[in-house]
Design goal:
- The structure holds 2 protein chains of 2 kinds.
- By secondary structure, chain A is mostly beta strands.
- Chain A has no helices and 11 strands.
- Chain A has strands at about 5, 10-15, 20-25, 30-35, 45-50, 55, 65-70, 75-80, 85-95, 105, 110-115.
- In chain A, strands 2, 4, 5, 6, 9, 10 and 11 form a 7-stranded mixed β-sheet that branches.
- The termini of chain A are far apart.
- Chain B is mainly beta.
- Helices cover about 0% and strands about 45% of the residues of chain B.
- A 5-stranded mixed β-sheet of chain B has the order 1-9-8-3-4, with no helix packed on it. A 4-stranded antiparallel β-sheet of chain B has the order 2-7-6-5, with no helix packed on it.
- Chain B is globular and about 40 Å long.
- The termini of chain B are far apart.
- The mean pLDDT of chain B is about 90.
- Classes of the chains: A mainly beta, B mainly beta.
- The interface of A and B includes residues 92 and 101 of A.
Chain lengths: ~120, ~110
C-alpha cells in the first residue's frame, strides 16, 4: 500500500456519460497530480493541485476537470466520454511546501473503460 | 522537448546485473536524476535519485557521470519481478514540480 488511495479501481461506462475518479493523497501531502495512460502509451500529465489550488496544467481536455477539497482529497471529472478516453488514470501525491526530494507516490490507478 | 534519452528495450538474464543507461545532456545544475519503474499496469514506483554522487539503496545503484550528462541504473541481481518499464527523469526536487515521463526502457528479465 503506497498510501495514495484511488477509487474506484475499475469503471465501465457508456459513451457520452460522466464519471468521477477519486484520489486520497498520502497523509501530509499537499500536492496531487493526475496522469492518464492509454493502452501501451506513456504517462501523460493532466493537472496538478497544491493545497486546493490549481498549480499546473498539462494536456487536459476541456471535457475533463478536477478539484482538490479542503481535506486534500481530489476528484477528476470526465464528461461526454468517448471511446478514446478509455485508459488508466493515476493519481500521485507529494510533500508540502518545500517539495518532496523523493518525488511522488503513485496510487494503483483507476481503469476506465468506455463502451 | 525530451530531457532524457533511453533505449526502448533491453533484456537481462535472471541473476545478472541489469544496467540501464540514460542520457540527459541538457541537465541543469540544480536538477536531479530520478528513476521510476512501472510494473505492468501498476502505478509507477520510485527507485532512486541523485544529484552528482553515486547513490545506492536497497533496490538499486545509480551511477552519474562526472559531467552529469548521463547515468546508469544498476539492478545488481535481477529477478523476474524486475521486469518493468524503467523511466529516467530529470527534475528539480523542490517546489512540487511535476514529473514528466518519457517512453522509458522496457526491461525484460529472462529466466
Amino acid at each position: 500500500d503506497s498510501g495514495v488511495t484511488q477509487t474506484p479501481k475499475h469503471l465501465i461506462t457508456a459513451t457520452g456519460q460522466r464519471v468521477t475518479l477519486r484520489c486520497s493523497p498520502r497523509s501530509g501531502d499537499l500536492s496531487v497530480y493526475w496522469y492518464q495512460q492509454s493502452l501501451d502509451q506513456g504517462l501523460q500529465f493532466l493537472i496538478q493541485y497544491y493545497n486546493g489550488e490549481e498549480r499546473a496544467k498539462g494536456n487536459i481536455l476541456e471535457r475533463f476537470s478536477a478539484q482538490q477539497f479542503p481535506d486534500l482529497h481530489s476528484e477528476l471529472n470526465l464528461s461526454s466520454l468517448e471511446l478514446g478516453d478509455s485508459a488508466l488514470y493515476f493519481c500521485a501525491s507529494s510533500g508540502g511546501g518545500t517539495g518532496d526530494p523523493y518525488g511522488y507516490t503513485f496510487g494503483s490507478g483507476t481503469r476506465l473503460t468506455v463502451v | 522537448d525530451a530531457k532524457t534519452t533511453q533505449p526502448p528495450s533491453m533484456d537481462c538474464a535472471e541473476g545478472r546485473a541489469a544496467n540501464l543507461p540514460c542520457n540527459h545532456s541538457t541537465i541543469s545544475g540544480n536538477e536531479y536524476v530520478y528513476w521510476y519503474r512501472q510494473i505492468h499496469s501498476q502505478g509507477p514506483q520510485y527507485i532512486i535519485h541523485g544529484l552528482k554522487n553515486n547513490e545506492t539503496n536497497e533496490m538499486a545503484s545509480l551511477i552519474i557521470t562526472e559531467d552529469r550528462k548521463s547515468s546508469t541504473l544498476i539492478l545488481p541481481h535481477a529477478t523476474l519481478r524486475d521486469t518493468a518499464v524503467y523511466y529516467c527523469i530529470v527534475r528539480f526536487p523542490f517546489g512540487n514540480e511535476k514529473l514528466t515521463f518519457g517512453t522509458g526502457t522496457r526491461l525484460t528479465i529472462i529466466p
